[in-house]
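Hi all, long-time lurker, first post. I run a small reading group and we've been trying to get comfortable going from sequence to structure in the token notation. Rather than ask abstract questions, I figured I'd post a concrete chain and ask someone more experienced to write out its structure so we can walk through it together at our next meeting. Sequence below, copied exactly:
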Amino acid sequence: MKYHAVLRAGRGASVCPRGAIGLARSALERAVTGGLLISALLAGSMAAVQAQSDYPNRPVRLIVPYSAGGVADVGMRLLAEGLSANLKQQFVVENRPGAGGIIAAKAGASAAPDGYTLSMTGNNYSIAAALFNALPYDILRDFESVSTVSFFDLLLLTREGSPLKSMQDVIAYAKANPGKLNIGTMVPGSTQNLAAELFRSSQKLDVAIVPFKTSPDMATAVMRGDVDVAFEFYAASQGLLRDKKLMPLASTGTKRTAYLPDVPTAMETGVNDFEVSSWNSISVPVGTPRSVIDTLNKAINAVVVKPNVQTMAHKLGMELRGSAPDAVDRRLKADIDKWSDLIDTVGIAKRN
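-- Answer (accepted) --
Happy to help. Here is the structure in token form:
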């Protein structure tokens, strides 16, 4: 007779058959395995906490949906340089131009949510959400906002010697001469084009909006008198403004720009509720730890207020302003609604 164990109780003894031993062994193994699993999970959690606490501990890439050298790209490089100094780790700009920002957005949305891939988002994505019937990403669902960074107000420009000396002159002339005023813009769906459409719609003007493929073509048309006025960014026209070949009548932000402090805003001239700004922000893939977002937000807000960074930004025609993450979300949602309503109202064809 084979016995596997003897269990002693008081003075007597009893045998523990094979089945009972098997059950006991299984229970013990489950307990040990469970303990090991809990230990592994705790170790993993502690490692994750440690990884977040010393973030960033390796280089961070910043995806920009434009080619290198443009004003938006240069602005992001200013930010990357400042973040590198602030967080003692390398922030590298990665240009992913093409397909209206879709290539960059897909790359950013599909990255690991660990804080080591940032995306430049902003007004271009709010316009895309309003203009396209379908996109392979959702700017509100697939990303988490970190902070605003840069703002680019438009200017209403005319040629040197034009009889139009203010935005109110433009409105008065358009109303007195239906169908005669021409407004130059960039291609349909651009910020410049939507600004002109908003101006025409909000002021109930009978004017022609003339789109151009390039900024130099549009500037030439204004200087020749082929179009009376145009909406354009400062960066694209600063040389002609400096040489006084183009004259600014108004800016389209909520306050005067630091780089053209003598130019009134459209709202200052009496055009109520007319505000159009192209703006850029930083976002990360959804699921990125809140501690990482907070670290980035604090660093960005510290970088953008540095005097040397502000001075360089003004030379490029942009204002740098940080924000809380939820302020970016509110701005994105508001702009998507604004541009969607305008596109539907004026009948701009949506894209597939």
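A couple of things your group might point at:
The chain has eleven helices and twelve strands.
The chain has three domains: 6-53, 60-151+281-334, 153-251.
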